[in-house]
Design goal:
homodimer, 331 residues, alpha+beta, 60s Ribosomal Protein L30, Chain: A, Phosphoribosyl-aminoimidazole Synthetase, Chain A, domain 2, 7-stranded mixed beta sheet, 4-stranded mixed beta sheet, 8 helices, 13 strands, 31% helix, globular
Chain lengths: 331, 331
Amino acid sequence: MDARILLDHGEGGAASARLVREVFLAHLGAPAVLEDAAVVEGGARLALTTDSFVVRPRFFPGGDVGKLAVCGTVNDLAVMGAVPRYLTCGFILEEGLPVADLERVVASMAAAAREAGVSIVAGDTKVVGHGEVDGLFVNTSGVGFVPAGRALSAGACRPGDAILVSGPVGDHGTAVMLAREGFGLETDLVSDCQPLADLAAALLAAAPGTRCMRDPTRGGLATTMLELCEASRVGMAIREPAIPVRRQVRAACDLLGLDPLFVACEGRLIAVVPPAEAGAALAALQAHPRGSGAAHIGAVGAGPARLVLETALGGRRPLVALEGAQLPRIC
Amino acid sequence: MDARILLDHGEGGAASARLVREVFLAHLGAPAVLEDAAVVEGGARLALTTDSFVVRPRFFPGGDVGKLAVCGTVNDLAVMGAVPRYLTCGFILEEGLPVADLERVVASMAAAAREAGVSIVAGDTKVVGHGEVDGLFVNTSGVGFVPAGRALSAGACRPGDAILVSGPVGDHGTAVMLAREGFGLETDLVSDCQPLADLAAALLAAAPGTRCMRDPTRGGLATTMLELCEASRVGMAIREPAIPVRRQVRAACDLLGLDPLFVACEGRLIAVVPPAEAGAALAALQAHPRGSGAAHIGAVGAGPARLVLETALGGRRPLVALEGAQLPRIC
């Protein structure tokens, strides 16, 4: 195999065939690469989602763009209550990219797909000239099966509901930022990037009345909760001392003037559950290895749609949507 | 709405919400943008496919990257005998891109989706810094329903089968190349970019024994046929005088030293049909507005897997896979 990606690897000829055979098939098994689409067993109700991943750097503590691309799309299906089944992946590569980097990313996708219980069934590779894309971008799209009767929705939150989070927030965004910018900080912090389908299933088994789940990626916990407030036309209050934030995340965010509540997670879920199921839901999360740091962080109140942070000192601080990012290109 | 794309438009905050509302929802209707995945009606057998589109320039005679992204993915489903149903779209945008360009692309996707009978049900937008991507790349992934008993495959071609093509080849690649490079050539040539689901359905109704269909995109007619030869372990012979090539395509290719048989189409299909159905298949293609230029161009023979061009003068020229592209970034 060639050492670096060439334009020819994306053009459908002999070089493309070599790349598919020696990199993609070698790691991902044998999807129907000679066909224009994969034909798979279906289901009565489907969840569909798509995400592109442009994280910089492409390898970071706790993961890489490939693991992230699988987990991100799997998690978008899982939080809808779907059983993730199939992924497609679309690479856009820069001419000159080391093939070893691509291979490492593809191997990581394969491992994450195995962990998440999904099959990568179709793919596509485009190569553009040097300087026309920053290295390697990947899109994953996902198909999940939605069990009959399941209807989770961002618009389903009701006053009195409990708000849970499955673990410490802000790990992913902080780990990527530190990997990118350095700042000379020594830290053992790693991204929380992980697939959440099994955790979501455990939660739904324990708390079948769950109103909605979300994975707080771009914009972090606060942005995601603001979206739920808007969609359900309710207020929400979260208690600052109850929200799990790792010491290293707090320290890095303090130093850089960031709010960890707006920093991305890639392996956490927020769940809004009816009050009668809050205890069972929290216990189910905490009993699962992916949710051992889960906490009950707040409650849904009446409208208007707004999010309030109750501080340790008894203050009430409104959290409002940021115009954009604290940290670009973290996913 | 802002005039240019900012990093903030991709970060999930207020600017992202504005972009979604004022550009995506305005043109694409109202998919479940507040959820992490769309939930849709399913089917017993699914066809899944994905493609990223990096064509340069993004607007060209007969289409643009948005129309291409919808047609390309719809066609990959259609040639598998599936009924295309749902698309997802994932944009990667460069900071500074004129929002008017994005809006024009999105409007074009909406029009192409209507024409193709598919719904765009989920989307994602990432923005990267100036110089980190060349303007606008888009991934579309597609889901189609495969009727019971339908089993088209690149590996199903048999000696004696007829080879049909639904219209002139090489229009798309040539039109894009001329739009990009100019060469001072005056031409009215436009891309053949169009959705083929209805044409494929008409063909299958007339020739239910059809072995396989393909849309000859990257690498053109010859590369696609070489893939069929490999997959079916058969030889194929095509008759040069029978292959429809527009005068303008032939002239431009002659000038530039390209072989039109290796230049991409984006609105043609190749069909391999059993000999008894060849007449009905050709008549069905020619009777359809998208296939009026269809032709019977050759036949499948015994192995080994190779493709031979029979020239007008009676010569037999083997066609072999190119290492890569004649024309990069044509889709």
